[in-house]
Design a protein that fits this description.
Elements lengths: L1 E4 L13 H12 L10 E4 L2 E2 L5 E2 L4 H12 L1 E10 L1 H8 L5 E6 L15 E9 L2 E6 L3 E3 L2 E3 L2 E5 L7 E9 L9 E4 L3 H9 L3 H28 L7 H22 L8 H15 L8
Helix pairs in contact: 1-2, 4-7, 5-6, 6-7
Protein name: Acyl carrier protein
Length: about 280
Amino acid sequence: MTATAAAPSVRTGILDCVQVNLALLADRRNGPGRHLALGARLRFRPRPGPDGLPTVDPPPQEHLREGAALVGLRPDSVAHRAAARELRAMAECAPVVYAVADSYDMPWLPYAGRAHMEHSFLVGAHRDGAEVEDAYDNETAWGPARPGRWTFPWERLPTASFACALSPVPGYQAPAPELSLDDPASYVEAYATHPDRLAALRRLTAETWLLTRARHLHAAYREHLGERLDAREHLRGWDRLTATAFIAQRRAERGRPVPEALLPDLASLLTADREVFAVRHHRP
């Protein structure tokens, strides 16, 4: 494996692991700032997830399809269960391939051999093998994940749950900001009453990470459009909640009590989203 550091222009700290590499392609194809349109739609629509708990994490292929439309790209030639040989064939026919696979099998990430989750990456054909690029930026329990480029032998690549090329859609128009926020009561109640407290806290740590990044991204897009959005203190509250959830998980793993305000604060922030991010249309 050879590696080089990458300094992407996209705001990696407010993107999730499916969005972040789509964001790179959006800006490279369409110019700086296009990736912020990934935040046009702020949604809170939980669905059934792991351990019998609700999740706001959408299925990766659905997440990609919607995100690509928001930034003016279209997935082409989608392949499922694409092993390294198929990824190589795709990369030799396209400038770059977008793929999603299990982070457990990604040697460039701290999750390798430790944690399973669906994670995106870009791959291109290089004279020395597969050139992988990943703009993911996060602190993990096993060390930092930082944006970079790596060259691997093709056989070291993970099998992708799906992979595709992405092409520009003509006639793109920036999407209007949109909210779709369900009532948070049943979501919070599910985490409050789950019988396995440690499993609930581990899931909640991931949930608050996703919720917080989505709100920062939505605010950034609204500001990119020139809107004055008074969300700074609210976003700081989400940042604090993410940190509190992580601390609560670590305390629970050590058999220690967790902050009692965690779930009430979650409910309060989810309720406040509706007012803070209200889309107001002013007459000229």
